[in-house]
Amino acid sequence: MTLEELLQALGQLPEGQKFVDALKAAIAAKDAEIVQKTNQYKTASKAQKDAEAKLQAANERLAKFQEHIDIDLETEDLDAALEEWKSKQLEQAKAGGATPPEIAQLQKDMSKLQRELKKAVEAQAAAEKKASEETAKRQNSERTRALLGALTEGKAIKPEQLIKVLADRVKVTDDDSLVFLKEDGEESSVADGVKSWLEANPEFLINNQIPGGGSANGGGKGAQAGSFGKELAKGASVEQTPAMQKAQETYFGKGA
């Protein structure tokens, strides 16, 4: 049954328009949430680009230092390496006949260079950390956006809660795309993976059975899903998968 058919059928029931209006409001709210997640993703993408630009600038500055100083900037003890470099420069200056004033000026210049280099190294480290953090934020935002869209499209109940259940299933690949990891380790698109997961766990699907219609039990699939959910809540299943256990804790609490 499509959404349009469901709304039409509900509208024909006594006071059914109330159900129709409530359902439309819920759909509108969910659409707004998807738009919000999309905007958050765009913001995270811009923040990542800004952080990467700062990191590139810091790397370029360090590269200029590297051209003039024969020091491994990734050494464990940068201060010791700089002091050793300064000593060599002073020895070469003295051996070349530099006067005391010239040596004093050289020491002053090298101390200034040492301070600037340390600042550049610290700025590079901070920019690298910031870029890494922004990348993680953007990837998390995209993961949430993709899952929310797939769960909403699949007519899942409480999509925002199921995002927490399925977040670990979505992997970011080397080319920055998203894949869904199924129980058997197979990779698929997020949309296909969520669809398969919902088919295997129908208790998390919205029951489209019209109240009062069909068989006395209100629809076989809906009744089956309800009983499964009750058993899940009671912890009756002996061999629960990690996903089922996580779903139980999310929906019913750890003490269920």
Name its key features:
256 residues, mainly alpha, Helix Hairpins, 2 domains, 8 helices, 70% helix
What does this structure look like?
The chain has 256 residues and is mainly alpha-helical. The protein folds into two domains: 15-153, Helix Hairpins (Orthogonal Bundle), CATH 1.10.287; 155-256, no CATH class. The protein is 70% helix and 4% strand. The chain is built from eight helices and three strands; from the N terminus they run αααααβββααα. A three-stranded antiparallel beta sheet has the order 1-2-3, with helices on one face. The chain is rod-shaped. The protein starts with a helix and ends with a helix. Residues 211-223 have a biased composition (Gly residues). Residues 41-68, 103-130 form a coiled coil. This is Minor structural protein GP20. Keywords: Coiled coil.
